[in-house]
Design brief:
Chain lengths: 139, 139
DNA sequence: TCCTAGCTTAGACTAGGTCTAAGTCAAGAT
DNA sequence: ATCTTGACTTAGACCTAGTCTAAGCTAGGA
């Protein structure tokens, strides 16, 4: 039983076979997939699954606050099932691979009051960029 | 004379009338525009300017390292002419307004070696999110 | 069983961005 | 001064990611 499915069920959200496959595909990966990659993998388990259902379902999970939507490459969104723990992202500039990482400090503490321009700052996320081992070897 | 134009010229990059208009439009704004917004404003000064030239020029300026490409909303890229000073961004979750801010420390120092997964980490940027004064008042 | 609301589907559509082929321009060679 | 060459610009076709629509399906309650 997927932990994400458990969390989703708490919102009284109907867990249909399609939604279960999508949630499990999302959670089963340790990297962050795009919607197309999730569709591709989910279709292996449920061949008649449609693109629209994948997009609808991902958007609903984001709206419920159980999945994070990430956009770092400007091309496609990526989905992170780990919405309940504070973390940041490490992104490969070569291949787009994205991993979760944890920093030793909370960046909100490092933004002085006079740099806040009257905003209420509620959260901060760090995008670390570099090259993954494979892309280092390739270059 | 635009400072961005000066920086671009140092790369032996030809400053054509189109490129000058685009660079000046980009630098003249204190918020970060999308490519379409830049086109819209630049066309007021040079009506025959084409969409392709705006996209080409923005991409070239990014490749030269003089302009930053920002993607926070997952819909369109925004361009930041201030690539030569290390800074982060403060984003309003209500209206999308984006401002430059400066933190008191470099976040790269906060990522322990065992969290780097073999990546070479070259830079890090922080996205601070919250509500701007106008959106606080509206809610 | 029938109704109903919600879910899923295929495929049309949209927005943002890229590519292509043709034309224009400017600087150096003649 | 004109020619050549390579870089730049253009209009519009094309591509990709994502959304919308209309129709069909499904499960649970009356």
């Amino acid at each position: 039983m997927s932990d994400l499915v458990t969390r989703l069920r708490r919102h009284n959200w109907r867990i249909t076979p399609q939604r279960r496959v999508i949630a499990e595909t999302l959670e089963g990966s340790h990297v962050h997939f795009t919607a197309e990659q999730i569709l591709e993998r989910a279709v292996e388990r449920m061949p008649e699954l449609s693109r629209a259902t994948v997009y609808n379902t991902l958007n609903e999970m984001v709206a419920l606050g159980e999945v994070l939507e990430l956009t770092f490459d400007g091309r496609s969104k990526r989905y992170d099932p780990n919405a309940d723990h504070e973390h940041h992202h490490l992104i490969c500039e070569g291949c787009g691979l994205m991993k979760d990482v944890h920093a030793m400090a909370d960046p909100v503490d490092w933004l002085p009051g006079d740099e806040r321009h009257g905003f209420t700052v509620t959260r901060a996320s760090i995008a670390y960029r570099g090259l993954c081992p494979e892309c280092q070897a390739a270059s």
